[in-house]
């Protein structure tokens, strides 16, 4: 397998190794040249270097107009890493290009994806927490972390990371995949959904499978997790066994659901960079005796 465990998946900070250090706001930024994670809509601004795409280094490239002040988010390989967002239609210098995070050909390497994902989460949190959701007052940063507080009502707020369950359901040698209408033609993936009030992650997994596909499951086992910064999810992966019911998809969310097997595959699977693909390869297509 490309990734031996879920901790090795892109968007998890472990991908960046021991040379990565997440910083907190308030650390002075001396403006030294560094690495730039520049977001343009759902894309990451990169430069072509030999046969790969890399993040710009040095100072902020000329001609780019930031929507807000750059944020110093980390140090990696001895260099400061800054995050900034530009307009979704901003023109780029000829040596730069905007590569979508969800590009089908997966040209961004794992470290680039991960740095870009962290930038995406930080900037999303900064933008969505400008105002206090309780009273509407302007917020200020808490010292020593990414949290914020409201001087008006004295409420503290912390980054919103939303847990989701993603589930592989097995029935003998078959496995359940579903498809949403907005996905690329022929692509199928796992049932997934957000945690609800009063639920454990295992209860969330059971409910989502019932709601989206109409079947019942048992033996729900946690297998790993992945940060998913679109905009700020944590995907908790599970494998479960089918116990009954016929597939009846929720038409508000799901276009189709089917049982597949190694000999009967869909036209397309999720990207290798996702925990969905990792679970399918490890627990549906791999050595079942080791699962």
Short descriptors:
291 residues; alpha+beta; Nucleoside Triphosphate Pyrophosphohydrolase; 8-stranded mixed beta sheet; 6-stranded mixed beta sheet; 17 strands; 14% helix; 33% strand; disordered C terminus
- Low-confidence runs (pLDDT<50, min 5 residues)? 287-291
Number of strands: 17
- Count of helix runs: 3
Helix content: 10-25%
N- to C-terminal distance: 14 Å
- Tell me the CATH superfamily of the largest domain: Nucleoside Triphosphate Pyrophosphohydrolase
The helix/strand order is EEEEEEEEHEEEEEEHEEEH
What is the overall shape?
Answer: globular
Q: What is the class of the largest domain in the CATH system?
A: Alpha Beta
Give the class from helix and strand content and strand pairing: alpha+beta
> Mean of residue pLDDT?
95
Multimeric status of the protein: single chain
CATH architecture of the largest domain: Alpha-Beta Complex
**Gyration radius from CA atoms, angstroms:** 21 Å
Enzyme class: hydrolase
Domain Nudix hydrolase: 159-283
EC number: 3.6.1.22
Protein name: NAD(+) diphosphatase
């Amino acid at each position: 397998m490309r990734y031996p465990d879920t901790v090795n998946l892109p968007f998890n900070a472990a991908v960046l190794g021991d040379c990565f250090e997440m910083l907190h706001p308030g650390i002075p930024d001396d403006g030294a040249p560094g690495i730039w994670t520049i977001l343009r809509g759902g894309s990451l601004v990169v430069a072509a270097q030999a046969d790969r795409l890399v993040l710009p280094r040095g100072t902020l490239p000329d001609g780019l107009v930031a929507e807000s002040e750059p944020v110093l988010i980390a140090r990696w390989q001895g260099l400061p890493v800054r995050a900034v967002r530009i307009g979704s239609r901003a023109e780029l210098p000829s040596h730069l290009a905007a590569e979508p995070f969800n590009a089908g050909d997966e040209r961004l390497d794992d470290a680039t994806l991960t740095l870009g994902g962290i930038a995406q989460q930080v900037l999303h949190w900064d933008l969505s927490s400008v105002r206090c959701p309780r009273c509407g007052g302007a917020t200020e940063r808490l010292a020593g972390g990414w949290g914020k507080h409201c001087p008006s009502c004295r409420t503290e707020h912390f980054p919103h990371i939303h847990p989701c369950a993603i589930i592989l359901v097995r029935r003998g040698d078959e496995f359940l995949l579903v498809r949403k209408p907005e996905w690329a033609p022929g692509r199928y993936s796992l049932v997934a959904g957000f945690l609800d009030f009063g639920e454990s992650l295992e209860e969330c997994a059971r409910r989502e499978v019932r709601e989206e596909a109409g079947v019942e499951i048992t033996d729900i086992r946690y297998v790993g997790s992945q940060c998913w910064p679109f905009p700020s999810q944590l995907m908790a992966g599970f494998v479960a066994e089918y116990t009954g019911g016929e597939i009846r998809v929720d038409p508000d969310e799901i276009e189709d659901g089917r049982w597949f097997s190694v000999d009967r595959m869909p036209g397309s699977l999720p990207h290798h960079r996702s925990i969905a693909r990792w679970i399918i390869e490890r627990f549906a297509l791999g050595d079942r005796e080791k699962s």
